[in-house]
Amino acid sequence: MCHPVRPLYILFLCTALILPAGCDAGLVPPEAPDRGFISGTVSYTGDWPADSSLFDLRFVAMRIVPTSADDIISEFGKQRVVLSQGLDRLALQDSFFVSLVTTGPYVYSGVAIQQSSNAFDWLPVGLYQEDAGIFQVLPDDTTFIHINVDFANIPPFPPVSN
């Protein structure tokens, strides 16, 4: 006659031996990506666009230099675009703060306006210029930047390659 404890013991032993083989890190949760913060100020000069062509105004940071609007749409789809809350309109200066930003270099950043109700109708009006337009976001650190927007002299889009 079979002892009733023996099958349970064998089942427990097999489970204890098989389960660890299927775990790569045990019960440790996966590591979260490093995150940092971007804080900045924006100075405005020149005449502001008419209200009818200014639906939204935001700080935008990207890890690529876009060559077309399709590049920007693609980066949005991959969730690789940093976007601030809306900025103040008709101001001489404003500030922004973006939290939980993926660390690493950002090579195309500035202020953009949405020119119509079309969600894809954005135009850069000022770019980050210091350090060749590149800044680095470090883990658990705040990167401070300043952007000048001159509405009489907005940057070309797509950007002119050197």
Description:
The chain is mostly beta strands and about 160 residues long. It is globular, with a radius of gyration of 25 Å. The termini are far apart. The chain is built from two helices and nine strands.
Labels describing this entry:
162 residues; four-stranded antiparallel sheet; three-stranded mixed sheet; 2 helices; 14% helix; globular
What string gives the helices and strands in order?
A: HEEHEEEEEEE
Tell me roughly what share of residues is in helical segments. 10-25%
Mean pLDDT: 85
Largest sheet: 4 strands, antiparallel
Structural class by secondary-structure content: mainly beta
Counting H and I runs of at least 4 residues, what is the number of helices?
2
- Compute the gyration radius: what is it? 25 Å
Describe the global form: globular
Low-confidence stretches: 8-18
Tell how many strands the DSSP assignment holds: 9
The spatial strand order of the largest sheet comes to: 3-2-6-7
* End-to-end separation: 86 Å
Q: What amount of the residues lies in strands?
A: 35-45%
Task: Please summarize what this structure is.
With 162 residues, this protein is mainly β.
Spell out the blueprint of helices and strands.
Layout (H helix, E strand, L loop, with lengths): L4 H14 L16 E11 L10 E7 L6 H9 L3 E3 L9 E10 L1 E3 L1 E7 L7 E6 L7 E3 L4 E9 L12
